[in-house]
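Notes from the 1:1 (GR / supervisor)

We went over the backlog. Supervisor wanted to see one worked example end to end before approving the batch request, so GR pasted a single chain during the call. The sequence is below; no edits were made to it. Supervisor asked that the structure be written out right there so they could see what the output format looks like.
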Amino acid sequence: MQVTRQTKIADIIKTPAGHDIIAKALYSMGLSLDVLKKGPLSGLTLGQIQKVAMGKIDDSFVDSIINILNIEQDTPLDDNAPIEKKWWKEAVFYQIYPRSFKDSDGDGIGDIRGIIEKLDYLKDLGVDAVWCSPMYDSPNDDNGYDIRDYRKIMDEFGTMEDFDELLSEMHKRDMKLIMDLVINHSSDEHEWFQSSVNDPDSPYKDYYIWRDGDENTPPNNWTSIFSGPAWNYYPERKQWALHLFTKKQMDLNWENEQLRKDLYEMINWWLDKGVDGFRLDVISFISKVDGLPDGNGVIADLMGCKGVEHYFYGPRLHKYLNEMAENTFNKYDAFTVGECQGTGIEMSKLMTGDYRKELNVVFSFDHIENPGKKRFSKYKYDLRPMAKELVNWQLNYGNHCWPTVFFENHDTTRMTSKVCPEGFYRKELSKLLAVMQMTMKGCPFIYQGQEIGMVNGEFRNMDSLRDVEALNYYKELIDKGVKEDEAYETVRAGSRDNCRTPMCWDNTENAGFTTGTPWIETIGSYEKINVDYQSRKKSSVLNFYRKAIKLRHECPELIYGEFELVKDKWKDVLCYFRRGEDATYLIEINLTDKVQKKVMSTKAYELVLSNVNSAGGNELTPFEANVYRFK
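Structure output shown during the call:
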């Protein structure tokens, strides 16, 4: 179907892109698609909606939306086929941010040998696969997400021999290693880019996105996700080069077939080493719209930067994903998880459907912030919208696709601090998240420190922050006239540094992370928020995670079982079944800090896991979460 201004909204939301874009817009306002499906607006055309908006939506906005909708003509297969069993669907994943995990040599920076030291800890926790953030050679403009050499280990992290030992030791423990791969962009210090800039006859001259233009006028109005214009001017070529992130993270030109071949060869080099899979950084950005047209201002206000509508789900994205998988991952049965910012459930189905051979799973971020909020918004997070979004994926993602269930990573803040900044319910919240991750369908991804209930950093001033995104945003706020203290408070609330503080191993100096000076401050509350203390305390968050992971491993119903809500309409208490051939489990979760009535009687069920000591009765205490098995 070709979308025009005469297309009705009811028809637009039947398309993958239309469904997801409109759902996201409504979600930002705290609304669901039901207001369109059941209301009078569904009969209006796109052109009529523009008129109703009374000038708030211009022609450029409508044209941009039409272009996005017409990029994708496929629709997901929905035939209720049986679930195909795979090792990665049964695995518990654990993300390591190497710089902050464990320092083995006292230089204040985590390293590969530090990870090796803690493999037995991860195995004891119940981890099946470890995703490591980038360990490649990098100038560290964005802490390793700016790769200078794809086949070399960063000196701060160790050597290739260290990496080989890490891989071997993980496989000895029957654990998988998932590497982080950044191939939307590279560092400007990569040999490809340096040659592209300086050698007019270079074989790499078109490996990046170059455009002509006056040195004072960028080719378009796109802005970087990390603030400022998305273009650098290079007098050597008298041209501009695109960077969607920092000024040193230059976007690769996926239109160039030889570039793609070189990337595939590099991927296979790692797979030949025995790596088990990859997390693909911002992989949905690799295809840009022809001509790189200006971004729309209204969309920029909604999405956070100009131009994003021209690359977040580009016209050749599926071609590239399929080609890459065919030439690399599928030949090795390697696992892939794509970071896909901006896409929703229907678009994701087209990237992860098992019959399409593109990606295994994706990270969707709609649940990470509340409706109408962004990471730098200072607010108290409500679990209820998050739970609604997760349930939507549980019920509607289909059997050809598999969700991911995560709450934290290296780009977020700590969930317990978002929900309860005062820390009153830190333990209950941490355990509640474990219950959700281990009882919902999908791949659970635990971020380092989540299993001990780590909280946000306690930074004192801007000098304490290291995150390039936060530093750039602070400068942008100051340039706009925001007072320094206000700008700092805004940046501190959403800085990615909150999740990048050192892992807390014990209550010695620097939480046992390093004998030197840590590259970033440790949290101040590590006396009890540490692995050593919690390992010895039966009721700790850590031991609860161990129990929850063990339960998931032992109960196939919690992996492949049918997900069924107890009640279709719910708000404060999430209650669902996981049904299998041999057992049925009931999960009840109080999503609020208030006492709530139970949704149903649990007398016929046996309590197998609870985050409180007083489970039972007719009420649920604040943030209470229980797992029952039918007797």
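Supervisor's comment: The chain has a mean pLDDT of 94.
Batch request approved.
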